[in-house]
Amino acid sequence: MKDFMMIFIGADYQELGLSPEQMQNRMGKWFGWNEKMRAQGIVKGGDALVPVVKRVSGPSRTISDGPFVDSKELIGGYYIVQAENAEAVVKIAEDYPDYDLGGTVEIREVMVFDQ
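RESULT FIELD:
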């Protein structure tokens, strides 16, 4: 089994103007999806991320506060999952709760360095 990061990219719920009921429904979908994966033993960890961003870049370590004009996407969170290959993670991602809001799941294999 390999580790993969599922990176969740989409709109900020606050900016979408979801009602409290819609937010509760949305969170219920997330909790259900998480519980399903935990029951299958494939989730190693993950968290939601707040939309406030600081970026440090370049040799002079320039600090910038987001949101950034060059970034139209919000990384809202991630999971680390275990699977045989990326195609298996694509299947895991079929239940991603935010596809209906135009969300995206980016899948990356975690690189392992032999020592």
